[in-house]
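Translate sequence into structure tokens.
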Amino acid sequence: MKRNWTVALFAASFLLVLAASSDTRPASASPAAAGLEQTVNGTSSSAEAIRRPNGWTEESHGNDVAPNYSIVFPQDRVNEITITVAPGDWQAMLDDTDRFLAPRPSAEGVESPGRLWVPATVEFGGKQWTNVGVRHKGGGSRWKAWVDDSLKMPLKLDFDQFEDEHPEIKNQRFHGFKQLSFANDIWDDSHLRDALAYDLLEEVGLAAAQTAHYFVTFNVGQQRFDLGVYTGIEVIDDTVVQRHFGDDSGNIYEGEGPAASLAAGTLEALSGSLLKKNNEKEADWSDIRDLYTILHSGQRISAPQAWRASLESVFNVNAFLKWLALSALLDHSDTYGQHPHNFYLYDDPSTGLLTWISWDHDRMLGGNRIAVLDRGDVGAEWPLIRHILDQPPYYATYMRYLSEMARGAFNPDRMEAKSWKMARIVGQYAARESSGQEYHAAVSSLIQAIRVRSEAVNAYLAAQSAGRSTPR
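Result follows.
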């Protein structure tokens, strides 16, 4: 399915495509165009005497510096970033997304539709990064942009994706970061949901990505498109795990596929749905298989105390219960319990426990479905929720977290103040996509959703305390 707006690009890009027919890479991504200067490892005699691109500094481009959160994830401003790709590469991205969202027999040699990297030049803060990998990402948010004929696709950047083809960018980083994720906020006109959710996760002590807002400009050859405000999100398997746990050597898994539910009968399919983000050469899912085996052990019924001890020897139940309570408060239904995605598991070497990490919250408090607070609607097809909450001690802990967070982190006055503080920073950029009035209305709608949710939660907790039944 060809997108209608590709026709608008054709006339402007035709001459550029002809000129680039022998090489679809943007001229600015070429080492010769970049004016190579510095040498890898500072030597000119070894095989690694490859000159770095002009403007390369260790602080901005190098791999031996700590990630600079104040630059990449500032809390007091909107960052502006420009991404440039060649017309031929742009068309390849579009075709790849078409294959991903409208599956049909792929051309010979085309694999993994939806994850095609193409080279780009990135400009930020007066500096330039060449041969950066860029691709479309996501499922629902990409689909929404696709059906709306919108250019504003969610994006991912990988700064050394093409180091094999371009050794001059070996271990290239963006102020210490290898990758960045950009959510297009297409479900969220306030542009605040992801940022608020990750802040809450961090506040209650859970592993959480850092976020910042970016105004993204996308150039296709000489054509400029201001895509608008995105939420820039720290990538879990890049720096989040190392920052939170102090060690990223354990297995990192991304839940993406039916067997990520861990439902009965999925054991042999686990490796296809809990995707390894590191340690790929070690075809070892034994930690996940151990979790599955314990979850479905008959001991859960015959000897529940022993079952809980076994579970706690491989899985961080406490962190999961915290996340479960917060996700209920946030009405975060686009995740485990309804969909087998939008989470990671990390096998923390310091504890030996698989630990839950939440992802993608741009549809929280969206009014699509009110999460049932006692999670009684969740069946055995989601055993991490059902089997755990069916244990009275775990259910009591879950309810305690729900109550504590409702009074503390999710206090509606605090949430409203935080929302308006963020909105004042984002608003002038968001108004470029719509209007100041429309943006104000979007933020007001989010705050109203927070207050409605808070009232429902407090009514439920009061009824539980009084021993009365109430709509859950």
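Note: The chain has a mean pLDDT of 88.
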